[in-house]
Amino acid sequence: MQSIKSSKESHDSILKVLNGFFGVFDNRAEREPNWELLRKLCTSGVRIVKCESEHEQVDDLDGFIRPRIEVLSSGELTDFYETMVDAKIHSFGRIAHAFITYKKQGIYQGKPLLGYGKKSIQLLNMAGSWKIHSITWFDETDSCLIDDELKS
């Protein structure tokens, strides 16, 4: 049976995966998103769910990547990045969960974009490596606000 890393080692390994995930979408300074890295960070059966006020959009990895290639490569969204501003990570054996507050910023169709939201990410330890298996997120709205202390 494979041994599981200690909590500190697991936490650090999970943070590395999460930072890698957020880094994929960074197109500041004309960077190209690293879609192959995203594929390496996720399980083959990953599900990605964007929750909105009235409905959800559920995608597999290809369905998630496809529209982002266009928006991040066409010039429609430039100088874009997302970053974690708070993360609560819990792991037990080969499973982990991260509840993340994130900030996104860039220039969308020539206008400044700034937003916040929450992501719930589940990970599995597969053959000694943490992989993202599920992502669900909800962007901040007027009726669902991120705490101001997380926005400083």
Strand order of the largest sheet: 2-1-6-5-4-3
| Cα-based radius of gyration, to the nearest Å | 16 Å
Binned, the helix content reads 25-40%
Number of extended strands = 6
Q: In the CATH hierarchy, what is the architecture at level 2? A: Roll
- Overall structural domain count: 1
Q: Class, according to the CATH hierarchy?
A: Alpha Beta
Order of helices and strands: HHEEHEEEE
Shape: globular
User: From the structure provided, what is the oligomeric state, counting identical versus distinct chains?
Assistant: single chain
Mean pLDDT: 93
Q: What proportion strand? A: over 45%
For the terminal residues, how far apart are their CA atoms?
45 Å
Largest sheet: 6 strands, mixed
Unreliable runs: none
Structural class: alpha+beta
Keywords:
152 residues; alpha+beta; Nuclear Transport Factor 2, Chain: A; 47% strand; globular
Please give a structural write-up:
This protein has 152 residues and is α+β, with helices and mostly antiparallel strands. It has a single domain, classed as Nuclear Transport Factor 2, Chain: A. It has 3 helices and 6 strands. The protein has a 6-stranded mixed β-sheet with strand order 2-1-6-5-4-3. It is globular and about 45 Å long. It starts with 6 loop residues before the first helix and ends in a 13-residue tail after the last strand.
What is the topology?
Elements: H1 7-24, H2 35-41, E1 42-51, E2 56-59, H3 61-73, E3 77-92, E4 95-108, E5 111-126, E6 129-139
Parallel strand pairs: 1-6
Antiparallel strand pairs: 1-2, 3-4, 4-5, 5-6
Helix pairs in contact: 1-2
